[in-house]
Amino acid sequence: MSPLPAVKRQKREVYSKDWLLAQLFHYDLFNTYNQYRHDTQSTEKTLTNMLLMAIENGLCDHVPERILKIELELRRKVDSEFANKMAQEALYKAAQKTAPPKSTVDNYAQDEEEDEAEEEEDEENEDDEEESVVEVADPWAELHETPGAQATLDPDRFFRHYFLTDGNPNRKKTTRGLRLDGLFQDWDTVIHRAERYGLYKWMTKEKPIRVCLGWNLQKVQKMAEFTDKKVRERRVQTRTREETRLKKLHDDLVAQCQEKCKGKEDPTEWEIAGKYMVMANELLDHCSPDRPFTLHISDKIKQSDVGPGCRAAYDFAIISGSMLLATSSGIMDWLLADAEKEYRASLADNDRDPSSVSRKRKEPPTQAQLYHRSKRDLQTLRPHQKSLNYEVRIRGHEIVGDDTRAFDQPRSGHIRFKDETLMSFSGKINLGESLGLVNIHGLKYSLEAPKKTPKWSSYTEEAAARERETRSAEEAAAKQSKKAKRPSVYEDFATPKRCSDKLARLSSKKKKD
Q1: Dihedral (C-alpha) 234, 235, 239, 241: value to the nearest 10 degrees?
Q2: From start to end residue, where is composition biased (Acidic residues) (predicted)?
Q3: What CA–CA distance (Å, rounded) separates 380 from 305?
Q4: In this predicted structure, what is the pLDDT of residue 32?
Q5: HSE value, Cβ hemisphere, 13 Å, CA-based, for 67
Q6: Distance between CA 295 and CA 396 in Å, rounded?
Q7: What per-residue confidence (pLDDT) applies to 238?
Q8: Would you say residue 119 has pLDDT above 90?
Q9: Integer distance in angstroms from the first to the last C-alpha of the chain?
Q10: With contact defined as beta carbons under 8 Å apart, do 50 and 14 qualify?
């Protein structure tokens, strides 16, 4: 007799429908396949296919976290019930051993003591039940560390809690003043209401800007100044910590270069591309950033007849943008012309009608095209000696007061590298009228070139004009919305309609007389 029927019967007993359902629930596969309601009419074949598909997709390699939490919850519940049961049994056995023998004699005093003990036990149980009741959390009270968020959530309760008593200003409340941390919306509404109650307000200078309110103007000013001081100190600590880390990377990089140069007769060709940390103490008089100044030079070299040039991205906190570097004035002129050519080409691509198939009229060559040579011609050129001196031109955005502006007129400067390893440099850059000529010192901390640098054409005169128009439109829209939301100061003192009509009739009667 063949053992095949017995094997099939054993397989059906082991891999039954209940077993398949258990596996699907255990690995949370109904939820995975978005079958939130299990169909009881599903066949074993359907369930088997679901399980096999899950195994192929690796869904049965690990038990889901949600299922493990259920197991832990059940274990915790069973363990706690078992522990309570064992404790009750132990107490019962101890009470059985220490219990006095039963007496049939009536004892009125003993019964009275037992009644009092039961009453005390009932009172204790009631107290325990009251303590075990979960108190509902108060979201407003939980925001006590950010009064500005409290003012946003419930302005009426905010003013009642900190500055009012029975709806009237109370100068004995919050005498030291209050800084509104977390006030991000309804800014003007809260300030306007505070001024109506006679509160003084003062704004911090460092960003993020905070509002300070109080009954004493001097205390409010001191609070804002103290906040600015603490913000600057934290920024200095963060920047100093990051500068120390980058200097350590620079020292390690210099050590690697020295190790690489040992025992070599031919000088190693070092590239200018990489990431530099820039130090400029004169800029720190105008800002207090929380990160070091940086200069990221691209490895995409622009080759001309006169020599190579490259592009970079600089970030000096209050001024940032695109930079061009060249070893001579001729190369710099070529880079500027090449950037202008790219910008004009992008404009032409945007303006070109895709439906037009007419041939483009040949235009005279630009200055960049005159300098352009093929790769074969460039290979025959005599290689230029690596220079340590570079001319610099910058464009970008600058922060003037509370305004961010784009400048399209290139500003010049120069840098000189310390040696042929190109690991450090020093120089001067003209950063405009407000900042002037600034001394800079750079240290390379990474040989990895940036993947992308801002385009020089992003800061043209047209782009700056478009940005100014956009900014002015946004400011006008913001002012309009503020006017629409701002409540009138004289709303509380407005003349009733009936009285105003009566006054109007009297004035017209006087005019007739």
Answers
A1: 10
A2: 109-133
A3: 11
A4: 72
A5: 15
A6: 13
A7: 92
A8: no
A9: 132
A10: no
| Measured distance CA(139)–CA(203) in Å, rounded | 27
**CB proximity list for 169: less than 8 A, separation 6 or greater:** 163, 197, 198, 199
Residue 208, preceding bond cis, omega within 30 degrees?
A: yes
Instruction: Write out the two tokens for 92.
Output: 């019962």
Q: Give the pLDDT confidence score for residue 182 in this predicted structure.
A: 83
Q: Which tokens is 476 given?
A: 């006008």
Three-state secondary structure string covering 251-300: HHHHHHHHHHHCCCCCCCCCCCCEEEEEECCCHHHCCCCCCCEEEEECCC
Mean per-residue pLDDT, 280-289: 89
Q: Which residue has the tokens 């004995």?
A: 172
Q: At 16, list the tokens.
A: 């039954």
Of how many residues is the chain composed?
513
Tens-digit pLDDT profile for residues 419-449: 888 999 999 999 988 889 999 999 999 999 8
| Global confidence as pTM | 0.57
Measured torsion, CA atoms of residues 69, 70, 71, 76, in degrees rounded to the nearest 10: 90
Residues 182, 194 contacting (CB under 8 angstroms): no
Locate tokens 């105003």: which residue? 500
Instruction: Please indicate whether residue 276 or residue 330 has the higher confidence score (pLDDT).
Output: 276
Domain ranges across the chain: 4-60, 142-229, 269-347+386-459, 473-513
* Cβ-based neighbours of 367, under 8 Å, separated by 6 or more: 333, 334, 337
Contact 176, 220 (CB under 8 A): no
Residue 20, token pair as written in the block: 């398949």
Gap between the Cα atoms of 153 and 155, Å rounded: 7
Query: In the beta sheet, which residues pair with residue 322?
Result: 313, 395
- Pick from 112-116, 278-282, 457-461, 462-466: least confident: 112-116
391 SS3 class: strand
Residue 93 has pLDDT above 70, yes or no: no
- pLDDT tens per residue, range 172-182: 998 888 998 88
H or E element at residue 320: strand 319-326
- Torsion on CA atoms 217, 218, 219, 225, rounded to nearest 10: 110
Residue the block writes with tokens 């309601």: 37
C-alpha–C-alpha distance, residues 291 and 283, integer Å: 13
Closest CA to 41 of 22, 11, 17: 17
- The pair of three-digit structure tokens given for residue 205, joined into one six-digit string: 């200078």
- For 273, other C-beta atoms within 10 Å of its C-beta total 19
CA distance 403 to 388: 37
Give 448-497 as a DSSP string. PPPS----GGGGSHHHHHHHHHHHHHHHHHHHHHHHHHPPPTTSTTPPPH
**In the Cβ-directed half-sphere of 114, how many Cα atoms lie within 13 Å?**
5
Residue 294: per-residue pLDDT: 95
